[in-house]
Design goal:
Length: 91
Amino acid sequence: MADPIPAWQCIGCGRIEAPQTCIGVCQDKKVFLVTLQDHQEALDAIQQLIGEMDALQGLLSRIAHTTPRDGQFEASWRAFQVDAKALLADK
C-alpha cells in the first residue's frame, strides 16, 4: 500500500490542491489522498471483517439465548464448539 499523499482541501468549495496551499481567499484544511486501488482494498478488507463479525455475533447470540434441556448441556456445548471451530476455520 502506498503512502498517503498530503494535499489541501477548501472547507468551502471542496477544491483540492497539492503539494501546497494556494494564496487565495479559500480556507484550506490538510487532507491525505490514497490511490483508488488502496481504498478499494481497504473497503474489501472491512467488508470481510464485517461478515466475520456478523457470523460470530450470530453464534454468540445463539449461545446467549439457548437453554439446554436437562442433561443436554454437554451435547449443546459440543454443538456450539463445532460451529465455533467452523467459523474459525473459515478465516
